């Protein structure tokens, strides 16, 4: 299993918009991809983290190369509530 971690700092005045986007756009996009095992949307004030679980690193690479993923990222950045963002891929994990 692969753990992918995406972190962002959001405009705290627009936190509700961010959360709506996460559940309305990001979650369905993740669910549509092969190898998706689950996710958690975490927020502490302006600090947001999305932890997704994947069957393999190849599944993550396929996600990140997909048109739907790129469109979702472009839409969330264009919305203006993300101030900074970073992406990390954790080592293989077993549960």
TrEMBL record:
SUPFAM superfamilies: Dimeric alpha+beta barrel (SSF54909). The chain crosses the membrane at residues 73-93. Pfam families: ABM. The keyword Transmembrane helix applies. It comes from the Bacteria. Residues 1-74 form the ABM domain. Gene3D superfamilies: 3.30.70.100. The keyword Transferase does not apply. InterPro entries: ABM_dom, Dimeric_a/b-barrel. Keywords: Membrane, Transmembrane, Transmembrane helix. This is ABM domain-containing protein.
């Amino acid at each position: 299993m692969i753990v992918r971690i995406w972190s962002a700092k959001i405009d705290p005045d627009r936190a509700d918009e961010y959360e709506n986007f996460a559940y309305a756009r990001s979650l369905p996009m993740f669910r549509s991809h092969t190898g998706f095992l689950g996710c958690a949307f975490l927020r502490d004030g302006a600090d947001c983290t999305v932890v997704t679980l994947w069957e393999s690193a190849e599944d993550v690479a396929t996600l990140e190369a997909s048109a739907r993923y790129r469109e979702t990222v472009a839409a969330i950045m264009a919305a203006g509530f993300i101030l900074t963002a970073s992406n990390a891929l954790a080592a293989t994990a077993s549960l």
